[in-house]
Design goal:
The protein has 222 residues and is an alpha/beta fold. It is 49% helix and 19% strand. The protein contains seven helices and seven strands, in the order ααβαβαβαβαβαββ.
Length: 222
């Protein structure tokens, strides 16, 4: 009986890091849900421009699972806002040991994003994600030879296609490109949708979740 107990205790000790990670993630997910309750309050403050459009929780959960299932390591988010979508993406990249760059040029949103990420992931959140308080066109020049396996588009809808075309040389084969609001803003997204559906390098499908999520995978022949 004593030997059996010692063996089981050893197993439990080995499991402690995994258990800590599990409960930490559950805490983060609860905090993410609480962010949504504050969205109206943040909107009424008038500090964040015309408005805030939190990513639908179903979309956020889907993106977390996508990053996890495919073990994605290097992502970029264009249109971070105050961090609703970044939080979901951060959970995924925390699981895979990857890294996310979130782009947001409106400084009041950048400051709120940093507060949210510190609250969710702790003071060392920058080990998982960083925010680039600049315009996408300026940031892309600093990407260099790095390849991306995940892209989330949630900025001006009529700029989706331009952003994707700029990113194309930086996509790793098999990379996922996710574009939000393609149903609610179908007209503004039409050029982008036509491109990913007709270009043979992409396999694309519209998911009827949230306000419509276009899920595309970059699969060039060469």
């Amino acid at each position: 009986m004593g030997i059996y107990f010692s063996f089981r205790l050893k197993d439990f000790i080995l499991m402690i890091p995994a258990l800590q990670a599990y409960f930490m993630e559950r805490s983060i997910l609860r905090k993410i849900q609480s962010l949504y309750k504050k969205s109206d309050q943040l909107l009424r403050s008038g500090e964040f421009g015309a408005g805030l459009w939190p990513v639908d929780p179903v979309v956020g959960h889907f993106l977390t699972q996508l990053i996890t299932q495919y073990d994605l390591k290097k992502g970029v988010e264009i249109g971070a806002g105050v961090g609703y979508s970044s939080a979901w993406l951060g959970v995924g990249f925390q699981r895979t040991g990857g890294n996310l760059t979130s782009l947001e040029y409106f400084l009041p949103k950048v400051k709120q994003w940093e507060k949210h990420m510190k609250s969710l992931f702790g003071p060392d959140f920058e080990q998982i994600m960083q925010i680039a308080p600049t315009d996408f066109r300026k940031w892309i020049n600093h990407l260099g030879a790095k390849k991306l396996d995940f892209v989330f588009l949630d900025h001006r809808k009529n700029e989706y296609l331009e952003s994707l075309q700029v990113l194309l040389p930086h996509l790793r084969k098999g990379a996922f490109v996710c574009a939000d609001n393609v149903v609610s803003h179908a007209k503004e997204c039409q050029a982008y949708l036509d491109f990913v559906r007709k270009d043979l390098r992409f396999k694309a499908v519209t998911l009827e979740i949230g306000q419509g999520l276009e899920l595309s995978r970059y699969l060039p022949v060469k």
